Amino acid sequence: MKLTGRSAIVTGAGQGIGKAMAARLAADGASVVIADIAHYDVAAAQLAKSGARTLGLRVDVSSETDTASMAEETVKAFGRIDILVNCAAMFATVKLGPFEAIPVDEWKRLLEINVLGVALCCKAVTPQMRTQKSGRIINLASGAPLKGVPYFLHYIASKGAVIAMTRGLARELGKDGITVNAIAPGLTVSDGTAGRPEHLRNHAESIRSRAIQREERPEDLVGAVSFLASDDSAFVTGQTLAVDGGSAML
User: Fold this and answer.
1) Which of 239, 69, 57 has the alpha carbon at shortest distance from 166?
2) What are the tens digits of pLDDT across the range 204-222?
3) Number of CB atoms found within 10 A of residue 205's CB
4) Are 30 and 54 in contact (CB under 8 A)?
């Protein structure tokens, strides 16, 4: 229970990877805010059955009003904000194809969620973390920009931006006692991707690229988020931790 007395916000936690990360942080003792545009209430209620203190909030991370309210409601409910996990992203609904066929509107919406959304969530929680002189920000990046995966250029561009923001924010916030790190998973079989055969089409090839040759599931990522959220990582910041079975080796 290394996170007892701390509170965490996990965006995109209504299902899939975010939901698994929220459950691990709760198991470590944290009070957890489930922030998402869908399933947030159901996921929070399910987690509460385990005895965890939870709060479900409808949050569109691309909305400055929503993200500011998210931070306010978290402080109101739990008195502090110790951990932010930026997991919300547009991915499962993205159609794979050549970059010149990606509609401009899809570029704009994806970047609003995957890049601006991360920035707005960080902006929302930073004042409280600065007051506390402590905080952990954990961004969900991807192994795709590390390897140059083709056919969803806007997505890998967005996750490359997340890695760059992680480094820049680590420099800005280190003096305030706030660490900023990223986790880069490989192709993960979750609620979102399981029903999207276009994302799993090259699944066998993805597995073959790994030193640990099996499929990746959300549970494979929760140990990394637990480490980065805890005092065990107090002197780790600005880093991108690839958790992909050894596909991308940094």
Assistant:
1) 239
2) 778 889 999 999 899 999 9
3) 9
4) no
Tokens of 182: 């990223």
Higher pLDDT, 200 or 164: 164
Domain boundaries, given as residue ranges, for the chain: 7-243
Matching residue, tokens 């992680």: 166
Find out whether 177 and 133 touch, Cβ atoms under 8 Å.
Answer: yes
Cα distance between residue 22 and residue 9, in whole Å: 8
The CATH superfamily assigned to 7-243 is NAD(P)-binding Rossmann-like Domain (3.40.50.720)
**Residue 40 annotated as catalytic:** no
Q: Which of 35, 29, 73 is nearest to 53 (CA)?
A: 29
Question: Vertex 207, ends 204 and 208: CA angle to 5°?
Answer: 85
Selecting among 40, 78, 91, 155, the annotated active-site residue is 155
pTM of this prediction? Answer: 0.95
